[in-house]
Design goal:
The chain is mostly helical and 93 residues long. 95% of the residues lie in helices and 0% in strands.
Length: 93
Amino acid sequence: MGDRISHKVTSDALIVFIRDKLAKNILEDYETAKREAMDLNNLSDELIESFDYERKKRSAFQYDMNTVVKRTKAGTSLERAKQFNFQLTKLLG
C-alpha cells in the first residue's frame, strides 16, 4: 500500500513538473513568434513607405528634374528597389 502512495506522489510530481516545463516552453515560443511578427510588421511598414516614397519621387523625377539630379536620385532609387525586391522575395519564400 505504501508503494502505491509513493508512486502516486511521484506521478503527480512529474505531471506538475512536465506541465510547468511545457507551459514555459509554450510561453517562450509565443514570445519569440510575437517578436518575429512585430519585426515583420515593422519591415512591411518600411517597405510600403519606401515604395510609396519612390512612387511619388518617380513622378517628380520624370517631369521636374535636370539630368545631374536625375542620375543621383536614380542611383538611390535603384538601391531601394534592390532592397525592396530582396525583402519581398524573402517574404514570399
